[in-house]
Amino acid sequence: MSSPAAPHRDLSRLCIHTATTKPWPVETAMEKYAAAGVTGITVWRDALEGRQPARVGEQIRACGLEVVSLCRGGFFPSTTEAGRQQAIDDNRRAIEQAAALGAPLVVLVCGAALGQSLECSRSQIIDGIAAILPDAEAAGVKLGIEPLHPMYADDRSAINTMAQAHAACDRLDHPLVGIAVDVYHVWWDDTLPAQIALAGETGRLFAFHICDWLTPTRHLLTDRGLMGEGCIDLRGIRAQVEAAGFQGHHEVEIFSTRWWESDQDAYLAQITAAYLDHA
Ligand code: ZN
Questions:
Q1: Which of 1, 87, 128, 166 has the fewest CB atoms below 10 angstroms from its CB?
Q2: Dist. CA 146–CA 180, nearest whole Å
Q3: What's the CA-to-centroid distance between 3 and ligand 1, angstroms?
Q4: Domains and CATH numbers, the chain
Q5: Which residues share a beta bridge with 109?
Q6: Distance from Cα 65 to the centre of ligand 1, integer Å
């Protein structure tokens, strides 16, 4: 007989990004995640170095895990034509890798280039995604635009809000283009509930990433918190994405020098506990 707390003891929708346990090679990560009861894995491209993506996909499925997505593509803007073409070529490779791996989605950190306006970068992002859409169609791979926190607007992404991500989706108007909601980037936005609801209505809610926001944040890239360590209303945002019809995985994506330096087995145990307790 199940206890009233049973729905909260469920790991069946928990996915972990390989970058979260970066010290582990992907083979170790998949075995450890599966043994911990995690059901999904998002593979970062650096984890595929020196490996055949198709083989890694087979290994992951043999462990009983689902490949949730490939991270990441994007970085379309550049002040030079050659730079923009290079980005398009690299995104085509990412789509190929995702298809070989069996990942249904490539997450896009869209990019921004110093020396030009954010508006110009946004326009180059649209052009870049439009250029790779035929590849995505041929491979049957979705593209998830991840709005990044405004602190990254200088050189990582000119798409910083859900509204901007929706505007990009409107321009591209394609069923394979949607949004990856990462709580770290959008938790502060007072329009978030409405934007998440809109993403549900428009069929654009492709992915849900979780972690926490630390105070103080000591590094812009590598000081994310484990769920429950910070100030993000994780349960509240989860309720919003579920109310919007999202039934995919809850993906733990934590870049943290502090956690990477710790014992990764103990850390994995803390991730599953923190997920159950706080997310
Ligand atoms: Zn993310």
A1: 1
A2: 5
A3: 33
A4: 26-278 (3.20.20.150)
A5: 74
A6: 19
Ligand 1 centroid from CA 207, angstroms: 9
Q: For 32, which DSSP code? A: H
Distance 209 CA to ligand 1 centre (A): 5
d(CA 4, ligand 1 centre) in Å: 31
How far does residue 244's CA lie from ligand 1's centre (Å)?
19
| Per-residue model confidence as pLDDT tens for the chain (279 residues) | 444 444 447 999 999 999 999 999 999 999 999 999 999 999 999 999 999 999 999 999 999 999 999 999 999 999 999 999 999 999 999 999 999 999 999 999 999 999 999 999 999 999 999 999 999 999 999 999 999 999 999 999 999 999 999 999 999 999 999 999 999 999 999 999 999 999 999 999 999 999 999 999 999 999 999 999 999 999 999 999 999 999 999 999 999 999 999 999 999 999 999 999 999
Ligand 1 centroid from CA 2, angstroms? 33
| DSSP single-letter state for residue 188 | T
Residues in the chain, total: 279
* Residue ranges in the chain assigned as alpha helix (H): 26-36, 53-62, 81-101, 118-139, 162-172, 183-186, 192-201, 234-243, 257-260, 264-278
The amino acid that residue 182 corresponds to is D
Cα(143) to ligand 1 centroid in Å equals 13
